[in-house]
From TrEMBL:
Residues 189-255 form the Alcohol dehydrogenase-like C-terminal domain. This is Glutathione-dependent formaldehyde dehydrogenase. Residues 25-142 form the Alcohol dehydrogenase-like N-terminal domain. Belongs to the zinc-containing alcohol dehydrogenase family. Pfam families: ADH_N, ADH_zinc_N. Its cofactor is Zn(2+). The keyword Metal-binding applies. One of its GO terms (molecular function) is oxidoreductase activity. Keywords: Metal-binding, Oxidoreductase, Zinc. It comes from Parenemella sanctibonifatiensis. InterPro entries: ADH-like_C, ADH-like_N, ADH_Zn_CS, GroES-like_sf, NAD(P)-bd_dom_sf. Signal peptide: none annotated.
Amino acid sequence: MRAVTWQGKNDIRVTDVPDPHLQQPTDAIVRITSTAICGSDLHLYEVLGPFMTKGDVIGHEPMGIVEEVGSDVTGVRPGDRVVVPFTISCGECWMCRRGLQSQCETTQVTDQGSGAALLGYSSLYGAVPGGQAEYLRVPHAAYGLMPVHTDLPDERYLFLSDILPTAWQAVRYADLSEGDSLAVLGLGPVGQLAARIGHHLGLRVFGVDPVPERRAMAARHGVEVFDTTDDTMAELRDATEGRGPDAVVDAVGMEAHGSPFGGAAHAVAGVLPDAVARPFMRNAGIDRLAALHTAIELVRRGGTVSISGVYGGAASPLPLLTMFDKQLQIRMGQCNVRSWTQDLVPLAEASDDPLGLGDLVTHRLPLASAPEAYEMFQKKDDGCIKVVLDPTT
């Protein structure tokens, strides 16, 4: 089959790889009809190379048609249309029963000290082949696969695999009430959805991003948008009676600009031999922390910073004196996708599309165009906000 594979830093190729096959009675094989490029895929593209192996199949936002199921799989059968969550979880362990599927004790990658295994996301998370491919093996399929029961287009369901529940969790972790204020830093795909969810839940939402096309998209969905200028912080405080927003979602993560040390650390990690780079990344403060520092400074005293953007440094410094003095709450973590399914499926299927899922994808391209799509997404060229790849064309 054809699949998107990692070949090196900034080197993504579509190559021929072996077809997946059932390995456990709990597996299923899914023929992929749509698969998206996620912002966190860009971390593999540039930063997390030391944990990748040449030829790794990447991608973790897929959906498609079930082709084959193992003997222990119930609830889905060949021919079913399904969404595939990016977290691989069993649904039965202590963590899963408590809604912490991203910490699943059955699939935890203990040799790396990581949580649940993830599709297509480096040896840190199990080196499981991902979903930017024609076919995908899905472990623990009875719990993981989400059947689709309507004829709505893929784009109304696809993002249930990752970015929609990630955005929902970020807003829920902010723990706000109707009428409260929420600032979302970064209006990429997760930030777009977090801002729309906040607006849907009755919050006053501010969106901050330097890219005009992203601000324009958010504004179409009731978000008050701001560029990233020297005046932005003051403008947001003026809009909130001088206090700052009640909560801030950091939807940027390690790729934030504005931190020279973090940028240099990324560059160093990218050129070191893997055997040296891995411990360097595990023990160094490699992150660009501009967005997180902005969130901590911007949020009102007693407020909440909710982190959905991915960070990769084990020793990235934080302003603990400020955080303590402002009495902040910090919430974060890999998304527990299946915890939010019952909340989100009705919104995805609603006839009025309340979250505007039909207005997120800016580019739908054949799988063969993945290398160009990654470069375009990274550089934010051509108004690129969200890319969906089609393995069927």
